[in-house]
Amino acid sequence: MGGLRFDAWAHHPYPTSPNLPPLQKVRYPNVTLSTLPLFEKQLKTSFHRAVPIWITEYGHETKPGEPKGVTAAKQSAYAKQALTIAKNDPNIQMFVWFVFRDSTGNPWQSGLELASGARKPAFNTFSSLARLTDGQTMTVAAGKAPRITIYAPYLGYYVASGTQIGIYYTVQDGAKVVARATPTAPLGTDQSVSFTPAFTPAKAHTYTVTAVANEPNGHSQTRITLVKVA
Fold first, then answer.
1. What is the phi/psi pair of residue 172, to 5°?
2. How far is the first Cα of the chain from the last one, in angstroms, to the nearest whole number?
3. Most exposed: 24, 112, 143, 227, by fewest CB within 10 Å?
């Protein structure tokens, strides 16, 4: 199994019942958020590397749309707990809440908004935590600019992999701008774009690299990378 090539392991770590909490106790090999660390260890043993985890679905349904669901207040508390777990797990690269807004045609009532568009309490809870995770941090050695990979799934909705993506990046050392450029790079099959900013990182500095990625139809997505220099 160690030679199998893949990018990440996608998983839906829902509790076994709509009214149960994120850290519901289950017996392994059932994998919810409570047993995910054990599963990550098994993946590392099986494939001889740390395997990225993509949580491509997660959510808590609310009453009265789902009679067995939780209250809106409890959904908010569970959303905070689940996203905090994901934020603190270095193996988790993606966390998708299912769904964003309830709708009459969808039997799954876990939206952060009601069908009317009114926000549930979980909306503000989720968005405040999501802002803290919408980016990445990397540690590099002094003297050589790092290769930076950003993920732009929004652009992947509009164009196919292989499409040339324009990148406008700015590198800042505190408030000082140390580099700017506009390279291009192909969109990867995993909806990533990679580039090497033109600057020389100095020891014990932390740089902010802000990249605005643009696809040919005019849509853009911004990603921030903190580069810490050892």
1. -120, 140
2. 35
3. 143
Determine the residue type at 188. G
Q: How do the domains of the chain map onto residue ranges?
A: 9-133, 136-229
The token duo for 229 is: 């220099």
Q: What is the pTM of this model?
A: 0.69
What contacts 209, CB < 8 A, 6 or more positions away?
Answer: 148, 169, 170, 171, 172, 197, 224, 225, 226, 227
Ordered alpha helix ranges (H), the chain: 36-47, 72-88, 121-133, 153-158
User: Residue 150 and residue 209: Cα distance in Å, rounded?
Assistant: 11
> 187-212: per-residue pLDDT in tens?
999 899 999 999 999 999 999 999 99
pLDDT at 132: 75
DSSP secondary structure code for residue 210 in this structure: E
Which residues of the chain, if any, have pLDDT below 70? 1-3
Report the pLDDT value the prediction gives residue 10, as an integer from 0 to 100.
96
- Name beta bridge partners: 168: 212
Backbone angles phi, psi at 44, to 5 degrees: -65, -40
Number of Cβ within a 10 Å radius of residue 108? 16
CA distances for 74 relative to 52, 70, 81, 108, angstroms: 29, 6, 11, 17
pLDDT of residue 2: 54
CATH number of 9-133: 3.20.20.80
Domain 136-229 adopts which CATH fold?
Answer: Immunoglobulin-like (2.60.40)
In this predicted structure, what is the pLDDT of residue 130?
Answer: 84
Provide the pLDDT for residue 103: 94
